[in-house]
Design brief:
This protein has one domain: Vanadium-containing Chloroperoxidase, domain 1. The protein is about 70% helix and about 0% strand. The protein is built from 10 helices and no strands. It has helices spanning about 15-35, 35-45, 50-60, 65-80, 80-105, 110-115, 140-155, 160-175, 185-205, 215-220.
């Protein structure tokens, strides 16, 4: 039996979303292999302008933990079980990202340190504090894709699923354009966030928890 979604009380499907995610993820991965991680970063970094900085600033904030927490609170007010699942996914994805960053790949350089060692100048957005280490994976991208996958599950509408996927990739791109991460960091964060969301989805709506329904349908909030 397919896991159930609180959206309209009908069986949920993530197949279109996951198919689009898989294709886009593979394309980004192929681009990194073809051009090279550092070379692709430089190619994108050269496009940086103050105007684009104003665009990517809000986008990168959508991968911030504060934004994720706000969405979790809104989901909890709408449907408690969905909100709890979102909080759990936030904790899992963030915890795994920090574990990888600080214990396993703690010495990995971010673009600032990497290119400074090679005496290569990069575009640095104004008003953005650039860090030097703990590059892999991108935490903002992890959060963005975790949230996108959850929303695609809660609201299985093709337009919603496409929109959240595009926004998640936008967050990942913003981390590159703001000189905080390499493309490979973003690619890893996208997979980590999506995987975390799928684990929590199954834990809350398939393995142990009963079918959840919207309050307006049953007259109560489970």
């Amino acid at each position: 039996m397919k896991p159930s979604t609180p959206y309209s009380g009908r069986p949920a499907t993530l197949v279109p979303y996951l198919l689009a995610f898989s294709i886009s993820w593979a394309l980004v991965g192929a681009l990194i292999l073809w051009i090279g991680n550092a070379s692709l970063f430089l190619a994108l970094n050269k496009l940086g302008t103050p105007w684009l900085d104003r665009l990517f600033g809000p986008l990168t904030w959508m991968g911030d933990g504060v934004f994720f927490a706000i969405v979790c609170c809104l989901l909890t007010a709408w449907h408690r079980r969905s909100g709890l699942a979102a909080f759990a996914a936030f904790g899992l994805s963030s915890g795994l990202a920090q574990l990888l960053k600080r214990l396993i790949f703690d010495g990995w350089q971010r673009p600032k340190a990497f290119f400074a060692d090679r005496q290569i100048e990069i575009y640095q957005p104004g008003g953005v504090e650039l860090f030097s280490y703990n590059s892999f994976p991108s935490g903002h991208t992890t959060s963005a894709f975790c949230l996108a996958c959850l929303l695609a599950y809660f609201f299985p509408n093709p337009r919603v699923q496409v929109s959240v996927l595009v926004l998640a990739w936008g967050v990942g791109l913003s981390r590159i354009m703001q000189a905080q991460h390499f493309p490979l960091d973003v690619l890893a964060g996208a997979m980590l966030g999506t995987g975390s969301a799928l684990i929590i989805r199954d834990a809350f709506f398939k393995w142990r928890w009963p079918v959840a329904t919207v309050r307006s349908q049953k007259g109560s909030n489970p």
